[in-house]
Amino acid sequence: MSHASRRRYAYLGPSGTFTEAALLSLPEAEQIEGVAYPSVPAAFDAVRGGECEAAVAAIESSVEGAVTATIDELASGEPLMIVRELLLPISFALLVRPGTDLDSVKTVASHPVAMPQCRRWLGQELPDVRWETAASNAEAARQVRDGVFDAALAGAFTAARYGLEVLADDVHDNVGAQTRFVVVTRPGTPTEPSGLDKTSITVGLRDNHPGELMEILEEFARRGVNLCRIESRPTGEAMGKYYFCIDCEGHIADERVGEALLGLRRNSAHLRFLGSYPRADRQAPTIRPGNTDEEFAAARNWLAAVRDGNR
Ligand SMILES: O=C(O)C(=O)C[C@]1(C(=O)O)C=C[C@@H](O)C=C1
Hints:
Strand content: 25-35%
Mean pLDDT: 96
Pfam families: ACT, PDT
Domain Prephenate dehydratase: 8-186
Largest sheet: 6 strands, mixed
Distance between the termini: 62 Å
CATH superfamily of the largest domain: ACT domain
Helix content: 25-40%
Number of helices: 8
Bound molecules: prephenic acid
CATH architecture of the largest domain: 2-Layer Sandwich
GO molecular function: prephenate dehydratase activity
Low-confidence stretches: none
Oligomer: single chain
Number of domains: 3
Site (Essential for prephenate dehydratase activity): 179
């Protein structure tokens, strides 16, 4: 496929990030031109502004939890929509300029989400090292190449791109660590239901009255909608002001999910639909008795009949 006709996907660069690896693992990878951006907000703005069709971003680490830059960026600004999620195994190596030994490593740089994944190893092997943050792991590697830092925590595959070598491999503390990535586009019709879907929203409180979070959760519980994740994030407006980022099982096309969102729309503030998309773990949803599409339709038919006087 010619370069010009490729689909442009934005990612956190430079080349060599796990985010780029996630992008390259997409089924449509051959038709994609990856475009590197220096931050997640910049990658998302490229989608908002139409420079790129989609963006790929890390949203959650199985070790470090939420990637807050991504969540906050989805919760604010011009809306975007998650169309897909993917899970990538994450393993870190310590990258250095050729010839550097462990004793001469005084500074180690990485993305803020990377260092906690290697904390124990660093504590044991490099207890006196100074850790520096970089915009991404590949950016840390680039800065090691340029002599700014002595070592970087990044994927072993990143070494070759920056003329570095792997001084120590598998320096992460948790074998089997994964990062969840999302593909976002400008808002449109949600992806077709696959039967194994997830729906993401952000939602705020109206007046912070007692039990208000419970009332939000009840909208899901009453329709038998199982939650996959709930994250509380500061709104940034003032101390003590939060919004919630919630992933639930099912698709917005499912009656029970639609009804839960209708309830939230009436009884909460700042509801934002972030997307319904196939689950990367392919887990089937739990549907409690009374909450299938058929049962919702039957109940609605009954109500219509009663209203029409046909009981
Ligand atoms: O994509 C990269 O390599 C990054 O630097 C980002 C990022 C993240 O944002 O979580 C990606 C996966 C790893 O868990 C650590 C860092």
